[in-house]
Write a sequence for this structure.
């Protein structure tokens, strides 16, 4: 059998068979085996191909939610969280990074052990399966400014932003990515379970106290390594990149 010829006419693709006796008409339809147009069988094939060949505008091939654009436009290096009643009705872990968003959840090889343990300690199954509890103060410490969910959140610190495809909430208590707490506790002098319980508890106040693992011995005083409260210096992130962060402000020596 001879190879077929591909004919492109506008947006339609027509395959014409050069084998006499095969294809879209009787052998005697043409001297060279091509179906003469308008042969009724060829017309059917052309209409069939034209009807089922996808051709859409590019804007419909990649649809970005307005809620995603809202989070991306935030000038600060923030994080987000998405929860839902099941795995499909939320933005799955690892998906936000495709849009340049930072999610506190991740899966598989992208997980970091200590981060995973903290996120797990914050989880609840109230929405149907294990997900971070949006009421936990530790979310403020982790920089979770946005919450994307189909669920209705009644926690006062979450403010609903109107006009989006699904519920988009903004935290009114989120802490900046860099700040100076009033008190620092050397977590090395605590049992790991105790330190994790303190950070993941409902009464944790991350703006006032920070539990640090591996702090400088010279900066700690007292049995638990508590540093006396001092006026908090003003600091901010002046440059934030994938592998480097630049912090500017009144940073004390050795701080």
């Amino acid at each position: 059998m001879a190879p077929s010829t591909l004919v492109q006419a506008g947006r339609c693709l027509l395959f014409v068979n050069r084998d006499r006796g095969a294809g879209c008409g009787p052998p005697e339809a043409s001297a060279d085996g091509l179906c003469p147009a308008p042969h009724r069988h060829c017309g059917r094939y052309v209409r069939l191909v034209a009807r089922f060949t996808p051709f859409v505008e590019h804007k419909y091939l990649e649809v970005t939610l307005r809620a995603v654009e809202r989070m991306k436009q935030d000038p600060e290096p923030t994080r987000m969280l998405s929860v839902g009643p099941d795995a499909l009705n939320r933005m799955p872990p690892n998906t936000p990074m495709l849009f340049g968003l930072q999610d506190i959840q991740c899966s598989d090889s992208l997980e970091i052990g200590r981060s995973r343990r903290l996120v797990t300690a914050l989880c609840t199954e109230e929405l149907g399966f294990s997900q971070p509890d949006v009421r936990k103060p530790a979310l403020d410490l982790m920089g979770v400014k946005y919450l994307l969910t189909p669920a209705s959140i009644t926690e006062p610190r979450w403010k609903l932003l109107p006009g989006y495809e699904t519920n988009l909430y903004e935290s009114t208590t989120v802490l900046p990515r860099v700040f100076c707490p009033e008190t620092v506790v050397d977590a090395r002098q605590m049992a790991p379970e105790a330190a994790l319980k303190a950070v993941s508890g409902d009464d944790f106040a991350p703006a006032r106290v920070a539990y640090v693992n591996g702090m400088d011995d010279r900066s700690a005083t007292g049995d638990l390594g508590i540093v006396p409260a001092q006026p908090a210096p003003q600091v901010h992130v002046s440059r934030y990149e994938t592998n480097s962060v630049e912090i500017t402000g009144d940073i004390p020596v050795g701080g």
Q: What stands out?
A: The chain has three domains: 5-55, 66-171, 183-249. Helices lie at 40-52, 66-72, 113-121, 138-141, 192-200.
